[in-house]
Amino acid sequence: MGQNWALAGMLFPTLEFGIFFLIVFTVGWGLRTAPTSRKYFLVAASYVFYGWWDWRFTGLLFATTVINYLGGLALGKAERVGLRKFIVGVTVAVDLGVLAFFKYYGFFLTSLDELLTTLGLHRDLPFMEIILPIGISFFTFQGISYVVDVYRGHIAAEKSLLDVMLFKSFFPQLVAGPIVRAADFIPQLHAPARLTREHIAVGTVLILTGLAKKMVIANYLATELVDPVFFDPTAVGALDLLTGAYGYAVQIYCDFSGYSDIAIGVAALLGYRFRENFDQPYRASSLQDFWRRWHISLSSWLRDYLYIPLGGSRGGGAKTYRNLFLTMFLGGVWHGAAWTFVIWGAFHGAMLGVERFIRAKLDELAPPQADEETPFLSRLGNFAQHAVGVVWTFHVVCFAWIFFRADSFGSAQDYLKGLADWTGSHDHVTPFLMGLVALGMLFQFTPRNMGRELALAIRVLPSPLLGLLLGAGILAIWAAAPEGVAPFIYFQF
Amino acid sequence: MLDLLDDTTADDNRVKAVRVADLEREEATLRSVARFIRAMWVAVAMLLLFNSGALVTVVNGFGVGPVQDAAVALTATWNEQMEKNGLATPVATIRAFVERLRGAGWSELREGTVELRGAYGEAKG
Known about the structure:
The structure holds two protein chains of two kinds. Chain A contains 19 helices and two strands. Chain A has two domains: 4-193, no CATH class; 198-485, no CATH class. By secondary structure, chain A is an all-alpha fold. Chain B is an all-alpha fold. Chain B has a domain at 1-50. Helices cover 89% and strands 0% of the residues of chain B. Chain A binds chain B through residues 15, 18, 22, 25-26, 29, 32, 192-197, 199-200, 220, 224, 269, 271, 430-432, 435, 463-464, 466-468, 470-472, 474-476, 478-480, and chain B through 22, 25-26, 28-29, 32-47, 50-51, 54-55, 58, 90-91, 94-95, 98, 101-102, 104-106, 108-109.
């Protein structure tokens, strides 16, 4: 996509990270009676973790943290509304400026160059090789949320630079989220760190399920189905393309939710609580429902810091549609500097508008009734409607994933054209890959409290048994997974 | 005055209760940390015993030097010993099973289903 990614760092499913975590856990808890030293240690560990990719970007992380910290302090002292607006505006503009430079500079110049060439006005533009700092989109959004929350009075300005540094750089969520809110995390830093049997049980279950999702399901689907099919969509048949789209839907879910699971689990083992980032998204019966379940930390961020400031649904029909579209459009742009992401976001924005419009019309024609008042047949109808909604939403999302995954807009077009031609071969539709797709989909429809039940069962295990379970789980995942460790998809954002 | 004394005692009791709760929390944290450290070492031991092949791969990725050479030699010997004692078998078995699944076509799946049905029928009598 015309960007250079710094991706040779410390990935979760590696021996390096295992050793790193062993040290951080032991020393971090050893320092529990000295909270400030513990925070210094965790910040140092997080900077080492980040520097493992490229140590030069630790300076950028520190500089943006200091800007957010100073912005927060200034907001804490300022009383005049105009001054407060100025401070929050400047701080957010600096954050976004840094993000824009690293993420969109190359894309902007390439697009401008193409436009000028098309118009016959070719110029030599100041192109530069810019390496995108890993996780910049995530820590920028965290920084913005901190300053805006202080401005809104949701949290007090944090006086300790150390706490803001730990909030922004805490390694489990640093490079690919979840996007943690200051209001959730900073109060945890003010209380003594605690580790309970529940933390351990939940952490173990999340780490093992996250590893299994990423290393087995996502990695096999990536290497044996999605990558070959998307590499040249004209070379494969329609059935392969269709399976490839389903496969990518499952791959990206297992990859990203797997990462989030591990991040939440690791944070839990260090005594901190992150909110859930995925809630069985492919069981959503509408796009609106999907966005309440998919990458929850980003969608709620976009809602609170973009959709609502734009006016949300307060300004009536047309303005609500505009706000929905703009929010999703910018959500697409956030993912990357490429037209495919722009189209992906715009498509979601447009479809959310269409869905809202249709629902409003349907509600006018047949107002919804409370469940207890509805007769059996009507409830059956609601169930059928829900089932159709799930299938429809899943396919709309899969359609949009094609643009999200394709290397270029042309490649996405080839993919869609290929779906209409059912004469080709279908070499990639094997029982193994179909089984993995089915397994990934199964995660969407298991009982919601299954993880909790598993954690409850593990909670009572004595340490040798817990160790055996952890060791056997990692061993089985390692043995079943393909060779090598692929980076997580969301590292590139 | 008596009311004030009662209030003070009540406050003392509350402070005491908070202190006891803090101490209990501190003890629970200590126990949990020790428990998970023990569990991690058991897991590490399991991985060293049963996944020694992966250790060789990792160590081979180190640069060249006397310490690295010694580490490579040590892990290679360790891996040989584990293989000789059959400890590499579980990983190899899982790998072979996954490889069989990967290589299976739709016809093998059908045959497998027929075999399973037959076995189920026989078991049912």
